[in-house]
Design goal:
The structure is a homodimer. The first copy, chain A, is α/β, with parallel strands linked by helices. Helix content of chain A is about 45%, strand content about 15%. Chain A is built from 36 helices and 32 strands. In chain A, the strands form 6 sheets. The first copy, chain A, has an 8-stranded mixed sheet. An 8-stranded parallel barrel of chain A has the order 25-26-27-28-29-30-31-32, surrounded by 7 helices. In chain A, α21 (about 570-575) links the parallel β25 and β26. In chain A, α14 crosses α20 (about 545-555) and α28 (about 700-720) crosses α29 (about 735-755). Chain A is elongated, with a radius of gyration of 33 Å. Chains A and B meet through α27, α29, α30, α32 and α34 of A and α27, α29, α30, α32 and α34 of B.
């Protein structure tokens, strides 16, 4: 079994293909070496060694032999010997997992420095100060990473050996009146090394090892062990990296950027990772080690003159300072980008005039950059369009569509609390506690953040007025979240640290009280709430040509149609601008809350006879006809799926005594009667109660009115020369007989309207598939339905038995304990809910093989879910307007899969 | 195509096998005829003619010819002619469907009497009075059934032609001072016939037909049409008889039991249908027509001396009055029962000394009789044991296990309202409105009916004290229903006509107000509520040897194990007496409501730290250990499945301000704090909220405490020489990681208790499968679970998206509109919920092929559901104690299938 892969001198045992075995860093070092790019030679211990070590806490018996062989090869390339007193080789030991986990695991540098090799190195480098500086760095790192971390009792934070050694350094500096490390002389550093070693002995009870081999194996084991360190484990949880992957370990000859004026070190990107501009971009430091650039103790210089800014114009760039080396580097970066066909993040060191490449990897980039690079590389023929499409994460589109909190300013902001990131983007405003206040303040020209325990449809005007919405309760698909996402508005929900006092108009967070008018900043993309005002960065979609080009490319490949969830003509237009090809869900319940409408609604609910009820319902006809006219017109000739009334009736009744009084007066009924009806409509579990088609079956006149409004609006539009296409959707069907019942009411009404108006029109009647039973009996339902639209919100609720309004009580614990990998309301649960979707598609199509099937739950805007729906054979997904581009991209990526 | 099947004279075209085609009556007439039993000849028009007529409203073209031929055959056997003035044949036209629908369709007798045939019949019968009596009966029936019912405008009830003709009869009788019809002379009846005919002409605008053929076809069509009459349709809805079956029509030669002293008529059963005693049992009337016996206008005589009672001792029996005819009849009934191998319900007529059999069919019987007959017939070798088991409907066992409302007394009782029959049997008592009152009154020696909007666990003491429970809300599996059935107590739920005023202690039903102390009688088997006291008939199971024998027989065949749902040792013992072989569901939440326990529970909920919470929980350990000790002991060595705490925590918190005050004092916390906790625990949909294993995951100390209590009780019993077998059941698992989490807590505790006590014990850890997701991922869950127990209540709630607490809002409409065939909480929905059960069984066993799988929802006591579970491959069903015998029988029947 081969555990050790060598590289260097234009050759390598492995290649970039071997990421799983060699980790990203090791594979890329091998690849660069094979490309004859100057890489300090070395070898990689495979991830298999790690996996095995995690289990057995021991190494394979032949590992030592393989390491010895590889070390010999390295020594031969370098012409140095590890532990050789005359010409000592120093090595670094670094981690390198399949996926980059920056800073999460350990590194040890300068291994091989011992009492025996130090004199040789001094002689050879002719630089005593450099050697003792390297030595004291080795002691610090090694005692911390290898010696202390391997002990059972780890010290509490802040009292570790590293801190104690640094105290010694600081003491020496202050005694000598030095302000910088560079002022320390070779002698100082030598003294320091001795002080360090004796401190290590005292604190850790062991000597700092003076044997190179012991140092090497200590380093290797420490790096492997750091895979299971707390930081790494937490990071893997967050990034969904499996524990069983393990890390590789790279042992590599040290090169030094700090060996004097002809030495330097730097990090760079083959293109600008913040803008995507195709220009070599990076930072470097003269006479420094790599960690100095990353650590930020010294301000690095710009890499080249082209990328100098106002702030860096005075600094010398590498092309100015070392033009030869720069040219070599520039050639290499071009070769690397071309070889990997992607923007590279590289690290280099120049040791006494010689350039060494230490790392190359695919560079991280933000959304703006990702889009531009993908488009430009495709246009340049560097990558094909499929690759370009896959280069942009759908979530990255979000970044460019919303104003965002400036991440630099955010770092130093006064963090208050974290909730669920329900509506991306940033929001800054003065806090208010009621929807009415939000509106009033907004009208006075103030920016507000609406802070509520939860929102209800009656808060919609205030939500609209606010820059951001912050709620203490609710999940990612709560009312606040749904409405906010529909508008692309910043929103944080389920922020359970909020303790709101509505009477006093204050909110207390971790003991700090904030009052109405105080400023908050919300980062809706991360769910973080800050005290005060943080700068927002505004998006500018129109001036971004790459966005449109990417969308065009995506549209060439995707087979899923993308619709939108929209309840108003405005939303419909927004979505259409983002590329929506129809409305997949037009909810009608929001249409009944305007004062002049809610009265009729309430009158209907309070009716004692069918006649009274029908009369009250028919008062709503004109309003509804107008609603549907507007929406059908905005979307014509694309289809508009209109869902019939869905929520339980009690949602329309007044809540407070005052409202009840008012209503009683208005309708000339007694308060007791209203109270009694409210009580009789009270349900223990309204989500599973008298709602959806159960309403239309109990009160067919509601369905009749809505159907009439839809069809009369259709006729009106046809008369005006439009070609509207309504799809009437019956909600919450669990059994085919429910659909048959409602379908008859609808088709009878269509016939009647056609007869009355003398105009024929096309329409469809279908159903929402949002109950497990509907999925299980989809073959029967398909006999009646002309289309299916999955309502995956409710389907998730019923499949899991989770109330999305109440999930806040245990979801955080569930995610924490890894009982759930993710919130199933955000990304579809493929094993459970998804299984039902597949069953329903299969059963439905077994009866109607061309059955149109879509999905209109919140999952329609989630990339992973879109991918799932594509593979499940759906015809379309429907999502909120601001998610349409994301869905388009995700659908294309799914089609490319 | 053959539409007409003749019978008579020892021959027949059809046989008893042809029930689907000829209906029950026609098939049996054919069968009797083939057996050479004297049957008046006739013919049957098939159900296919009916089905065709319902669709096309016309007859096949060759039907007339076939009827004519059959009529000729009949005439030839009888030596009479239909319409022959000299020797006229009269016929009856009767319905006869595949399943008996007594009295639901129409009959016309004496067809063939016309102005032309009357003189001939008078001459031949030498009985003018008889002929005109027959004629006026024909006019009455025909004008009503054929002439009026065929008109488009049916008159409102009470103004029909039948009533108007009867008014004429009554007028004549009162003018003449007669009190009985028999006082009318031939001349009177002749006059009456003329008056009738002219009234028919006036009212219906048509002449009564004087043509025999017109009469015949009128009769045939009227009978076919009555298949779609309101009564028949309603009956079919109730009995689940498909509309497409149709009825056959039997045309048969009339024989007359009212032709003088040597004529008679009677109905009889080959065994007593009320007791099952093997004795020929029936009633007869001299000189009467069959309808007179059924109509109950004259008190009929007992059939034989053996069956005379105190009340009928003075009446002459048929064996005394017509010994020869009786002997022939007795022979025939013996042959019929033996031939059909089942108790027969027969009708006969003796016309002038000649016995004719008019009908035989399987006799209806009550539960007591069904059991006795089945057992005795099996013991006598008349039927095999499988047949015997299938002869008893599982529901019939219910009748003999509960006191029941006397059905005779019930007929004349003051009916108030109808709810859902949630707990079978009868209950009589004075109404009270609180659980405390129920208990107090009961202690004063009064019988009470507890009337509530709904019940909660805090009402349990009052429910126990009551003779019956009546609620305005809730479904068949509401709290009240579950608890009542567990005790075998009479209970009616969801009686929405109740308008309860708790303050005034009154209930208003349809405008009538009743106050505390008024008497109600509940029929829990039908859901009917009556004003006043109705006599109850008490069951006596111990003195019924047949019950035990039937159960023994059933146990030989069934393969399903029957367990019980029981939370107390008493319930466990009751169930064991009924044959339960373990506890399938021991709920633990009821155990926390006693005053000394609820305090600790509330303290736990109000805890701010894990330590406080653990401390409060551990206060419950002693109680729980005692609970489990009792139950495990009562059931040992059979297994006891204990479900860990399941309901949301808010159920344990105080409801009223007063209770909150008390608690605040007791726990030394502020009222505000309690109030705040109550608010924070409030959920919009608690059924889908923080409950089930979600509690144990958030608060593992609850699971730890319960596991410790279970295992310590187990150890104690083992030390006492018992062999308890606990099965710990984790509720509401939706994903395997939930089960893994809880299983670890439980097995760790088991290990700890074993170590502490130094005793090893057996136990299992399994899960309730009650969410669609659990079914869909049952393969994963089976890797962790040692058993599955379907919780079909919650599974039905989530699969349908129905809250069983709120279903009352629309279920009645759904059943009425036939959107649901039955309440899915009563009998399992095989297509939806059942499909999930099958998926889960298959997936679960794919990973563990011997996985023990049961069901502990309410469906465990429903025969249709038990049958389904048997075929789905379950190992056991668990039901409330009083359903155990029903489940045993249903399981046997399923195994015999």
């Amino acid at each position: 079994m081969k555990y050790v892969y060598s590289f260097g001198n234009g050759k390598a045992d492995g290649s970039a293909e071997d990421k799983n075995l060699l980790g990203g860093k090791g594979a890329n070092l091998a690849e660069m070496s094979s490309l004859d790019i100057p890489v300090p030679p070395g070898f990689t211990l495979t991830t298999e060694v790690c996996v095995n070590y995690m289990k057995e806490h021991s190494y394979p018996s032949d590992l030592t032999g393989q390491v010895d062989d590889a070390m010999k090869q390295m020594e031969s390339i370098m012409g140095q010997g590890f532990g050789d007193p005359e010409n000592p080789l120093l090595v670094s030991v670094r981690s390198g997992a399949r996926m980059s986990m920056p800073g999460m695991m350990e590194t040890v540098l300068n291994l091989g420095l011992t009492s025996k090799t130090i004199p040789g190195l001094i002689k050879k480098s002719n630089n005593e100060r450099f050697v003792y500086d390297a030595y004291r760095r080795l002691i610090t790192m090694y005692s911390d990473v290898v010696m202390e971390k391997s002990m059972d009792d780890e010290p509490a934070d802040g009292e570790g050996i590293r801190e104690q050694l640094e105290d010694i350094l600081e003491n020496m500096k202050s005694e000598k009146g030095f302000s910088s490390d560079t002022e320390l002389s070779a002698t100082d550093l030598k003294t320091l090394s001795e002080l360090y070693k004796s401190k290590v002995k005292t604190v850790l009870g062991k000597n700092f090892p003076d044997d190179p081999s012991e140092q090497l194996w200590g380093g290797i084991t420490a790096v492997f062990s750091s895979w299971d360190g707390k930081r790494a484990v937490n990071y893997r949880r967050i990034e969904n990296i499996p524990d069983h992957w393990g890390t590789a370990v790279n042992v590599q000859a040290m090169v030094f950027g700090n060996m004097g004026a002809s030495s330097a070190t730097g990090v760079a990107f083959t293109r600008n990772p913040g803008t995507g501009e195709n220009i070599f971009f990076g930072e470097w430091l003269a006479n420094a080690q790599g960690e100095d650039v990353v650590a930020g103790l010294r301000t690095p210089n710009p890499l080249n003159t082209e990328t100098k800014t106002e702030d860096t114009a005075h600094l010398v760039s590498l092309d100015e300072f070392m033009p030869e080396n720069y040219k070599t580097l520039d050639d290499i970066q071009k070769r690397l980008e071309s070889h990997y066909s992607d923007m590279q993040d590289i690290e280099f060191t120049i040791q006494e005039g010689t350039l060494w490449m230490l790392q190359t990897r695919v560079g991280k980039r933000n959304g703006t950059a990702a889009i531009r690079m993908a488009v430009e590389m495709a246009e340049a023929g560097q990558i094909d369009e499929k690759t370009a499409i896959n280069r942009v994460k759908p979530e990255q589109l979000d970044e460019i569509m919303h104003p965002n909190v400036d991440s630099n300013a955010e770092k130093n902001a006064d963090f208050l609390a974290k909730g669920l990131p329900a509506g991306p983007g940033g929001g800054v405003g003065q806090i208010v506690f009621t929807a009415d206040d939000a509106e009033t303040w907004k009208n006075e020209g103030k920016n507000v953040i609406l802070v509520r325990n939860e929102t209800s449809p009656e808060d919609v005007h205030g939500m609209h007025a606010a820059e951001g919405i912050l709620t203490a309760k609710g999940g990612m698909t709560s009312h606040a979240a749904l409405v906010a996402r529909g508008w692309g508005k910043c929103c944080i929900v389920g922020c359970s640290d909020l303790d709101i006092n509505r009477t006093k108009k204050t909110v207390t967070i971790s003991g700090r009280e904030f009052k109405e008018g105080d400023w908050f900043t919300l980062n809706g993309s991360t769910g973080k709430v800050y005290n005060g005002q943080i700068k927002l960065i505004e998006p500018d979609l129109d001036s971004n040509p790459y966005f449109g080009k990417l969308m065009e490319m995506a549209d060439k490949f995707r087979t899923l149609t993308i619709r939108t969830n929209a309840d108003t003509p405005d939303d419909a237009k927004t979505a259409r601008n983002f590329g929506a090809e129809g409305i997949g869900l037009c909810r009608t319940e929001h249409m009944f809350f305007e004062p002049e409408r809610i009265v009729s609604m309430r009158q209907m609910i309070l009716s004692n006879t069918e006649d009274e009820r029908r009369h009250a319902v028919m008062n709503l006809l004109d309003f509804q006809r107008e609603d549907f006219y507007g929406i059908l017109k905005a979307m014509a000739p694309d289809p508009v799926t209109i869902r019939l009334l869905d929520p339980p009736l009690h949602e329309f009744l007044p809540q407070t005594d005052e409202q009840i009084m008012e209503l009683a007066e208005e309708l000339q009924v007694s308060r007791e009667e209203i109270q009694k009806r409210i009580e009789s409509l009270h349900e223990l579990n309204p989500m599973l109660g008298h709602r959806g088609c159960r309403l239309g079956i109990a009160y067919p006149e509601i369905t009749e009115m809505q159907a009439r409004a839809i069809f009369e609006a259709t006729v009106k539009l046809i008369e005006e020369g439009e070609t509207p296409f309504p799809e009437v959707m019956v909600p919450l069907v669990g059994t085919v007989s429910e659909l048959s019942h409602q379908k008859k009411v609808i088709t009878d009404m269509a016939d009647l309207v056609m007869e009355e108006k003398g105009i024929r029109f096309d329409y469809m009647v279908g159903t929402m598939i949002e109950l497990p039973r509907a999925c299980l009996t989809a073959d029967q339902i398909a006999e009646e339905a002309e289309f299916f639209s999955f309502g995956t919100n409710d389907l998730t609720q019923t499949t899991y038995g989770f109330s999305r309004d109440d999930i806040g009580g245990f979801l955080p614990a569930y995610l924490q304990e890894k009982i759930l990998a993710h919130d199933p309301f955000q990304s579809i649960d493929q094993q459970g809910v998804g299984e039902l979707v597949k069953i329903a598609v299969e059963k439905g199509r077994s009866k109607k093989n061309k059955l149109k099937i879509g999905i209109c739950g919140e999952h329609g805007g989630d990339p992973d879910s879109v991918r799932f729906f594509h593979h499940a054979g759906l015809n379309y997904v429907s999502c909120s307007p601001f998610r349409v581009p994301i869905a388009r991209l995700a659908a294309a990526q799914a089609a490319i899969d």
